[in-house]
Design goal:
alpha/beta, about 280 residues, ten-stranded mixed sheet, 9 helices, single chain
Length: about 280
């Protein structure tokens, strides 16, 4: 298993995301690479606090964090890297450079992450990464094991593609995947597509030995239905495609995915339709 890249700015939210990444790394036997992005300096007074280079403080903070938590990951390594630039550019660049298994990051933080995660910038980091991304809001209980995953199935062909990576994540945790069939129209042919895609995912999970449960929901608001169902069953993770239903393949998050990433109180696993994983025959 290759590295998991964790975006970190030492805010409570990003530390919480790191601790979640640690629990995942322990189970999937992966290295962790912690990445802090130093904002490019603006034109400031050289004597101002803003102009001071925080790199040494950040390096010390990383060393202390690794000293504390490396014993919890005895079979793998926790390392760090400092990159100058913009968060939404540098995190995807590092993930690509080290061929990361996934990226994990908090949705709000102290060093501009909150602004970064609101609006188009949130779309850009999830969209720009060439691997799946888990986004985690603050306040998530790190002690809860990954036991329930919600995987939504809509009428797009791409909706099935997230099954492979979701299975890869579910199996080492012995997690149950809840297949949520979403009917957003009364059209018989479209509803049949949803049923067909769900049955294909079910067969794949059976083949892979993944525990699963299937439920169907009528939905006028897809993000709301997914989030409400996930809360209802007390899920630990929501697995989505970055483009759904009325999607287009581009560098921007689809409208449904954007709403789920920004609004879900439950961690969200976002997977691109261009991400290809073996094992699926479609």
């Amino acid at each position: 298993m290759s590295k998991i890249v964790v975006a970190i700015d030492f805010s409570d939210c990003s530390i919480n995301a790191f601790l979640h990444s640690l629990s995942i790394a322990q189970t999937v036997k992966s290295d962790l690479l912690l990445v802090w992005v130093q904002k490019e300096a603006a034109h400031t007074d050289k004597f101002s606090d803003i102009a001071k280079d925080p790199t040494k403080d950040v390096q010390k903070a990383f060393e202390e964090l690794i000293d504390k938590y490396q014993p919890d990951l005895p079979s793998n390594k926790i390392t760090f890297k400092i990159r100058p630039g913009k968060v939404y550019n540098e995190i995807p660049a590092e993930a690509k450079a080290c061929k990361a298994y996934m990226v994990i990051c908090g949705t709000h933080g102290a060093s501009g992450f909150e602004k970064f995660w609101i609006g188009s910038n949130a779309n850009r980091i999830v969209s720009a990464c060439n691997c799946p991304v888990i986004t985690i809001r603050g306040g998530i209980n790190i002690k809860r094991p990954l036991k329930k995953i919600v995987l939504s199935i809509d009428s797009t062909q791409e909706t099935r593609q997230k099954a492979s990576f979701t299975a890869m994540l579910a199996k080492p945790f012995n997690a149950e995947v809840n297949i949520l069939k979403l009917y957003s129209t009364r059209s018989k042919s479209i509803r049949q597509n949803v049923d067909l895609y769900a049955s294909q995912v079910e067969r794949f999970f059976l083949k892979e030995g993944v525990n699963f449960n299937t439920i169907a929901e009528e939905s006028e608001n897809i993000p709301e239905t997914i989030i409400n169902y996930s809360k209802k069953i007390d899920a630990n993770l929501i697995s989505i495609m970055t483009e759904q239903e009325s999607s287009a393949s581009n560098l921007w998050l689809g409208p449904y995915a954007q709403q789920i990433v920004n609004q879900s109180p439950i961690p969200v696993l976002s997977i691109h339709s261009r991400d290809v994983y073996t094992g699926l025959g479609f």
